[in-house]
Every structure is written in structure tokens, then in C-alpha cells.
Amino acid sequence: xxxxxxxxxxxxxxxxxxxxxxxxxxxxxxxxxxxxxxxxxxxxxxxxxxxxxxxxxxxxxxxxxxxxxxxxxxxxxxxxxxxxxxxxxxxxxxxxxxxxxxxxxxxxxxxxxxxxxxxxxxxxxxxxxxxxxxxxxxxxxxxxxxxxxxxxxxxxxxxxxxxxxxxxxxxxxxxxxxxxxxxxxxxxxxxxxxxxxxxxxxxxxxxxxxxxxxxxxxxxxxxxxxxxxxxxxxxxxxxxxxxxxxxxxxxxxxxxxxxxxxxxxxxxxxxxxxxxxxxxxxxxxxxxxxxxxxxxxxxxxxxxxxxxxxxxxxxxxxxxxxxxxxxxxxxxxxxxxxxxxxxxxxxxxxxxxxxxxxxxxxxxxxxxxxxxxxxxxxxxxxxxxxxxxxxxxxxxxxxxxxxxxxxxxxxxxxxxxxxxxxxxxxxxxxxxxxxxxxxxxxxxxxxxxxxxxxxxxxxxxxxxxxxxxxxxxxxxxxxxxxxxxxxxxxxxxxxxxxxxxxxxxxxxxxxxxxxxxxxxxxxxxxxxxxxxxxxxxxxxxxxxxxxxxxxxxxxxxxxxxxxxxxxxxxxxxxxxxxxxxxxxxxxxxxxxxxxxxxxxxxxxxxxxxxxxxxxxxxxxxxxxxxxxxxxxxxxxxxxxxxxxxxxxxxxxxxxxxxxxxxxxxxxxxxxxxxxxxxxxxxxxxxxxxxxxxxxxxxxxxxxxxxxxxxxxxxxxxxxxxxxxxxxxxxxxxxxxxxxxxxxxxxxxxxxxxxxxxxxxxxxxxxxxxxxxxxxxxxxxxxxxxxxxxxxxxxxxxxxxxxxxxxxxxxxxxxxxxxxxxxxxxxxxxxxxxxxxxxxxxxxxxxxxxxxxxxxxxxxxxxxxxxxxxxxxxxx
Length: 875
Ligand code: ARG
Ligand code: ZN
Hints:
Elements: E1 3-4, E2 13-25, E3 28-39, E4 50-53, E5 58-64, E6 67-68, E7 80-83, E8 89-98, E9 108-112, E10 115-119, E11 138-148, E12 154-157, E13 160-166, E14 171-183, E15 189-192, E16 195-202, E17 208-215, H1 224-241, E18 249-255, E19 262-263, E20 268-272, H2 285-300, E21 309-310, H3 316-334, H4 337-356, E22 368-369, H5 378-395, H6 397-411, E23 415-416, H7 418-429, H8 438-441, E24 447-455, E25 460-468, E26 483-490, E27 496-497, E28 512-516, E29 520-525, E30 533-536, E31 545-547, H9 552-561, H10 565-583, H11 594-605, H12 611-617, H13 623-629, H14 635-652, H15 654-663, H16 674-692, H17 696-708, H18 712-723, H19 728-742, H20 746-757, H21 765-773, H22 782-795, H23 797-800, H24 806-821, H25 823-829, H26 841-855, H27 862-872
Helix pairs in contact: 1-2, 2-3, 3-4, 3-5, 4-5, 4-10, 5-6, 6-7, 9-10, 10-12, 10-14, 12-16, 14-16, 15-16, 16-18, 17-18, 19-20, 20-22, 24-25, 24-26, 25-27, 26-27
Zinc ion binds at residues 297, 301, 320, 323.
């Protein structure tokens, strides 16, 4: 059954206050809820019945204004509780019984390593009690948690703790009150035997906020980074957006079993352990950076999401797109802006473009869904972020800030739409964003075709740009969108040229943001002596594909001359892609363009360049991206061509790589600064390349680096390099050692699983099956599933796409197995199969068959049903 945006109606009833009492036991939990309900003055509905959502609940009792209702007085079928003919204002008391200890879906109230915790977004609250579980119903919550004092000394919920005390039978309670009205999806509860780490933050208005982090005792030493990140995020949001924290306490809890990364519950953020816990010995630089950005993301939601929330789930990108935008700005300010932009763009082009071209393609503001958890997508998050970024580019920094101030002020305490967001931006800036709104409405990645010519006699350079947007499920004949297109022109010596739009313009700027609004447009630039080299779509100023007939000479030129770091990187990627593509199917002795080798040699030698950028530029385009770009990708052939380039570069540049390795060996204390992160990254890239060709000296370096490392980045770098080599004995011995060293730490064991599952040498299907037999593997833990099965299907592409279809069959079996216990994770895991139409029939038919197998499973969840059926539907 499908839900449509066009059917939205304001709720007939609102809830002003919710009083909850949780009795937590080992064999279940009893939830007493008392709702103050009132007819919604903003609704013209004459609905007489109160409709509440409920899922997997046992209803124990229900009272209306103190009168107990009998079974005949209400209707409790399916996922609704309907109380007929209610008064205009009343109190409803409901008691439900649930079994958190048996909740494997990890939605609602469940247990993770012995503690109680919750995940309510999007629709988990209805698994706790009956409620109008929709974000436009905002209520004030008071929550009393009761549990055994010895087993659950820490009892948490949203807001401030207002009362606590002991009860009979060794039990105790704490009562929490949240003064801010909130939707039910922001409710949270935690009960466990947890250690508390405290810190504090003084806000810009001088209020002292208690920062508290709750972890299992074994993780006590892994909190500093998250707390430091939190304080940086709090300061940054004050400085950049003028947003101050609003409660007296801010809490973070780490749980091991969590479907997603983290959750922004009001005043009580709950995190997947892998997205919050870090120490030098156990977390890589990448993990440190990821944690900083996720902690910030969840914190920023306090304004973009909690104070101003979503009217309905079609508006999800209102909070997610904007919050991702805010966290990327933050990361960019904390580290290297160019590198952050490269990482974001690379992810978007690899994975979001693929989603936008597949059967689940949907607009940033979807029009319909069957299961909302399937719409926590790269399109909602990352493309949504790009859309906000384009608004900022069009308005400029100052107007954008005026717009966000107006948005927060105008809608504080409300549940609103993406359109309200855009209107605030329009009203503050005076700009008309009517056409721009199509970014929210039309799915699919716009494709720009760019051609140019130069007229020597007049000195005019002309760029012609046409845009088309491919058809996506349910959408054809799309309208042109409003695209900010940043452009520069380079002279023969590499110098930036003025972009003179009319013959008499003086002192024209050297970079411009052109605004594309039509299907075809052209732009003329005057006063040029010779044909310039264009630097197109600088900073990746819009999430679009660009087709331009670059020559390898132009790309090499841009790689070393463009003032825009992003486009330097992009030119390098395009050059490498062009070279790799030309080698596909050419066998193992086909020559690799010496131009590419020379370009990489230049990069390796140049110590004056931003080393963080060099580290990024040295990474070859991933197999996933090469596959995304190909029409009917031959996965094995793409893999071989890429390997051929890799080993040629490693052989030809051996001495340069060695020099780079040694030059970037750091001494002194470990620190996570952009500079040292870049050096470790460069050094580990160099090492991996050298081991790729089984260089014996490099082998010794890797073994020494592994043994001596004082941090996980270097230890993992060495392990990864060895896993990618043919030194089988070293590989096995090091993997064993690694496990012995870290077996007590689940976050590290996950890394150990994924480094093996993602590698062609250690991640063959039989090896994957063996990993799944390993005692540390756990079907109930999403991180373990992702680190083995997810890494295999998403990163070990030649193995997953084995000609005999074994990878596809394997995945479909695992999806079926997971569907009963955790449908959300099952629906995510199935995703690689959904792109079957992209592949030639040898692969595509087998992928399709694997999907059909899933679709035939009995009792298929709504989550998996939606993904599988949409993928099989259509032409
Ligand atoms: N709002 C969370 C975040 O992005 C994600 C919650 C995802 N929940 C889900 N059921 N898919 O920070
Ligand atoms: Zn979010």
C-alpha cells in the first residue's frame, strides 16, 4: 500500500502532553501512557474517531477520561487503534506490553548488549505505545523510567531529570521532563549499566551546558574525540548560524546494535558505537573524521530538525539535506575544504548518481512511498545537501545566512515543508527560486553537454551548454532546471583569464557562476588572444554530469594548472578514467599512456603542493565509479584494466613511491590534523601500490609499519597493503595477529571483517562464508552484517559479479534470511541487485533471478517488498 504526498491532511487531533511510565523487566516492558488529546483547531475535519498508530503491541488496557473501555468500545485491528466518537478534549490512558529482548528489528524499544535503548525515527514510537505517530503532532513529554537498580543504574530520557528515587524490590526510577514540544520520532529512552563521562560547554549567552556521554565500561577511554567534536560543533553553530543550545543537558549514548549511524533525539543523541567511539589505537583517521562529522550532524539537528521539524516524511530532506549541508560546512572549516569537497562529490557521483539512475530513483522531495525507512537515501541526504548548497551559491553567503535566520525564526516550534525553507530563502534575499524548486520535484541527474569554439579574428570564445534530465520511474519529459555553473578559463601558461561577457566590460572576474535555466544556452567571452582551456563546474557547483570532449593534453594541463583544487583532482580522475577505459579488453601487455605516468610522477615529486590534495589525486577512480560510468559494464574487464594501470604505475614509479613513503614518515606524537592525516594517507597509498607489485623491500616496510604503529591508521594501512599483496604467509599471519590483538573490541573486529571481505584475495565467496562462521560474526548486529556481506557485495565487485552468478545467489539468500529478523537492514543489503538492468544479460539475468527469488519468499517484509518489486517492475 502506497502513501502519497498529495493525500496529506492536517491531523484531526493533536496531543498537548504525553505522560509515560516505563516498567522495564527482563521478560518485557510495560508502558503506561497518558495523552492529553484535543481536536485540532486547524483541521476542518469532522472526523469523530481518534486514530492511533500501533505496531507489534499487546494492548493491556485503555481508559478514556478515567472510564475503562471494553473490547467492543474500540477497534484494534491491523496497525491502527480506533476509538470511536471521542469528545473534543479528553485524556486517554493506554497500557501496552512489549518484549524489547526479542526485538531484532531494532525499531522502537530494544536491547543492545544488555541495555535498553530506543530508535523511533521514523515510525518506531508506534512499537512502544499507541500514538498519532507522525511528525506534525508535537507534544511535551514527561517520562518516568523504572528498572532494577543494580542491573540498570543509569536511566535516561529526553530533557531534564526532575525526580528520582528508590522503589521496592531493588528497583529505582528517574523522571525526565522535556520542555520543548516534539514529534514522537524524537523520543528516546536508555537504561543500562553505563559509565558516564562529563564535560561542559559555555554558550554564547553564558549558559553552562552539562555534556554527558554514556558508554559501556570497556569503552571509557574512547570518548574524548566525540566530546571534543561536540564542543567544536556547538561553538561553530553559534558562530556560523547564530544557533545556541537550548537545554541544560546534552547527552550522547553509544550502542553496539544500531541500524543506522546515529539519531538526534532531543537532548539524548544515540549513536552506533562505530560512529562515536574512537581512540588512537583503534580508530583510523577516516573514522576520526567521520565521528566528528556525525557528532556535529546530530547536534546540528537540534535546530535543523528538532526546533524546526518536518510536516510529514515527504519533507525528510528538509532536515536531512540541510543538516548534511551544515555538517559538511563544519567539516570543511575544521579540515581541508578542497579535500572535503572531493570526498563529497566522489561519493555523490559514485553512489547517488547510481541511485538516481536506478529503479528506486526518487526526487529530493518524494511523491510517494510504501516504507519510509527505504527513503533514508543518498538522494534525500546527499543530493538534498547539494540542493541547499546551490541555494547558497545563488544567494551568496550573506543572503543565505539571512535566509536561514528567517527560516529558524519564522518556523521555530513548527513542522514545515521544503517549500517553507525555500520561501524563507526567497523572502530574505528577494530572489525568485520558482524554477529552482524543480530540484526538489524532479528525480534524475541532469546531464550537461558542453561544446565550445573560439573565433581567432574576434577573440570571442563561445560555450554552448545544453541540459537534459533522463526519465526516471514515473517521470518523463522533464523541465530544465536552474543550475549554478561555476566556470574559469585558463591561458596557455596556466594563468586564470578574465571572463569578459561583453566587449566593453572592464576588469571582469576570473571566475563566474553562470546560471543555466534553459534547455540550451550559450555564453560568449570576449577579448581573448587564444583558445583558453575551460575549467568547468568548479567546486562541483551542481550535482550534474558533464560531457565535454576533453583531450588528454587538456586534462593533464588542468591537473597541474587549475587554481581550483577540486577541478585539478577532477581532471586527474578524468584522465585516469580515459586511460583505464582505453585498456579494457586489451590484455595484460597493452601499453599505459606515458602521459598518465608522467602526471603521477609529477604529483609524487611535488612537495610544495597541498599534500592532502596530492593524497586524493593519487587515488585511482574506484571500480564502483568506473562501473557507474559504463553503459553495460564488464566488471572483470574493468577490474583488470584498472589493475593494469595500478601495477604499471607502481612499477614505473617505484623509486618515487619509496621516496614519497619515506618523506611522509612522521615522527612525534600522533595528531589528527589535515597535514598529518594527508601524510599518513599518502604514505599508506604509496605502500599499498608497492605491495601491489610484490616489492620485497616494501614488504619489509609494511611488516615493520604494522608492528611498530602507534595508531590504527598506520596499522590498518599496513594490514590493508599486505592483504592486497601476494605475500600469502605475511597476509595470513598479520590478519591473525590483528585479530588476537583486538578481538575484545567489536569496532576493530568490524574493520578486520571488512578489510577481508572487500579484498579479492581474502574475500572469495567461500572465504566470506567462513567469515560468517567466525565466532565474532553476529546475525543480530547490523555492523557485522555490513562489514562482511555489505563489504563483499558493495566493494569486492569482481567476486560479487562472478560469472556463475554465485555472488548474486549468495546475496539473495542472506537477504531472505535477514528479512524476518531485521527488514530495514535486509532492504538495504539487497540494493546491489536492483541495478540488474544496467548489466549485460550474462549478469543482468542472473541478478534479476536472484531478485525474483527474494520476491518469492513468504511473509516478505514491506521494506524488502518495496525495493524488490520496484526493481523488477517496468520495462
Ligand atoms: N535522523 C537520523 C540521522 O540522519 C537517521 C535516522 C534513520 N532512521 C531510520 N529509521 N532510517 O541523523
Ligand atoms: Zn540526519
